[in-house]
Write a structure and sequence with these properties.
By secondary structure, this protein is of the alpha/beta class. The chain is built from 15 helices and 17 strands. It is 36% helix and 20% strand. The strands form 4 sheets. The protein has an 8-stranded mixed sheet with strand order 4-3-5-1-6-16-2-17, with helices on both faces. Strands 8-9-12-11 form a 4-stranded antiparallel sheet, with helices on one face. The protein has a 3-stranded antiparallel sheet with strand order 10-13-14.
């Protein structure tokens, strides 16, 4: 293959991890692998969009994969990457003769001809390059993730998840898997950690088996846990506390997931000691200013019919979001009006709607507690049973901040230096693997 290089690069995408918290834990003598990297290489601060509504991981990771800002790539919603043909870092490297692989990259489209492996995220309808067992396991993970609020998984998905687990889970982690699974009812955040550990085991095994020059792993449990448990962190300095019915005051889910990521970093370093390692976060989260409830519809189609909304199909997305597809723009406008007219008994709206013509991207935005007797109104009509129609997801603890972080074992970075653009990451990756023309422009620093 022309352009082949002896170098290899592993990029761990630890979505939204807060390095201030990581460093605080490290100062207490915890997180040894991450602490070692920070001590040896420092980190760079990355920056992206400035408007809060544009600070979403499915926007920022498209930027990190394409080298384009939101204004340039135009991908605003999770899963929308499939409607674009944007050059991403993987296929640009493949075109130069390098072998690439990816596990669960957020909002990424599989445009590769012959990847080492490509397992998309659970929310993006794009091609899979994997073994039949791994493909079926991915389908099970997608079902589990999208039904997470209801703690529901089909028997078929459970069987496929078990087959994939037996094929890919590292025996060294079996005791941890058992602990996560056996305690997930009382500690629901461990379901996300179970899946992240399994994805990491898949990544390590596939990377070792196929030997790609560039391989990426995206993990989302920390982002999920921070959103819902950041106030529980022992290094959180604020005054807001989660209620005891939600989580015990002596528990720290944030440290638990950071400790898992520390373990994954150590495993990657042991298995691939010669690989250059980058760790990026895209964004980070700061503590939220108040307690906010997250709710998710239990049955999206049934609820839309209850509202009298006409539609073709409905597909759940992350957390509170879902996509409504209609047969025509006129039907979509009518559906939008019905959804926007739905208001809780206190007058607060239930939904926000983004009308894309024949598709509606909808978010359930009611953020207060919902009593058992609560109803809602559409115009003069009052409907009952709102609490029965929704599943409690969590209390919001963390909120997005546009600054992210990047560790690079190819050079030492100064966290106090001027931030680099998140859009420069593809140029850094390309520059670290290939000398010569860089399709993503000039990197903020030359390869060390």
């Amino acid at each position: 293959m022309t352009g082949q290089t002896d170098r290899s690069l592993i990029f761990l995408e630890f979505n939204e991890v807060n390095f201030d918290f990581v460093r605080a834990y490290a100062r207490e003598g915890r997180l040894p692998a991450l602490a070692g990297l920070l001590n040896s290489y420092g980190f760079a601060v990355t920056e992206s969009e400035q408007t809060y509504e544009e600070l979403e991981p499915w926007i920022q990771w498209v930027t990190a994969h394409t080298g384009k800002s939101l204004a340039e790539h135009g991908v605003f919603r999770l899963g929308d990457i499939v409607n674009h043909d944007l050059p991403q870092v993987w296929e640009c490297l493949e075109q130069r003769g390098l072998r690439v692989g990816a596990v669960s990259p957020m909002n990424a489209k599989n445009r590769l001809r012959e990847p080492a492996f490509f397992l998309p995220d659970p929310w993006t309808a794009t091609g899979i390059h994997a073994s039949p067992v791994l493909t079926r396991m991915h389908e099970a993970i997608a079902q589990a993730v999208n039904e997470n609020a209801q703690s529901r998984i089909s028997l078929r998905s459970l069987a496929n998840l078990l087959r994939g687990f037996l094929a890919y889970a590292s025996p060294a982690n079996w005791a941890t898997y058992v602990r996560y699974a056996s305690t997930a009812i009382r500690h629901p955040w461990r379901k996300a950690m179970f899946l992240d550990l399994l994805l990491a085991d898949v990544f390590v095994r596939e990377t070792a088996r196929t030997g790609p020059h560039f391989a990426t792993l995206f993990l989302n449990a920390a982002a999920h846990i921070q959103h819902h448990y950041l106030f529980c962190s022992s290094v959180y300095q604020g005054t807001i506390r989660n209620p005891e019915w939600y989580v015990r005051p002596d528990e720290d889910p944030v440290f638990e997931v950071y400790s898992l990521y520390d373990r994954i970093v150590a495993a990657v370093q042991r298995r691939f000691p010669k690989a250059r390692l980058m760790i990026g976060t895209g964004l980070h989260q700061n503590p939220h200013s108040k307690l906010t409830f997250y709710w998710r519809l239990k049955n999206h189609g049934e609820f839309l019919r209850k509202l009298g909304v006409e539609f073709d199909t409905v597909a759940p997305r992350m957390s509170r979001d879902f996509l409504v597809s209609c047969r025509s723009a006129e039907q979509a406008r009518s559906a939008e009006q019905q959804l926007l007219a739905a208001r809780a008994d206190d007058g607060a709206p239930l939904f926000e709607v983004d009308n894309r013509g024949t598709d509606l991207f909808v978010m359930f935005v009611y953020a207060r507690d919902i009593a058992a007797e609560a109803g809602f109104r559409i115009g003069d009509q009052r409907l009952l049973g709102l609490r029965a129609d929704v599943a409690f997801v969590a209390l919001k603890n963390g909120e997005h901040h546009g600054l992210g972080y990047l560790i690079d074992t190819g050079r030492r970075s100064d966290p106090d230096a001027k931030p680099i653009a998140l859009a420069s990451i593809p140029a850094l990756v390309f520059d670290s693997l290939l000398n010569g023309h860089n399709p993503f422009g000039t990197p903020p620093y030359k390869n060390a």
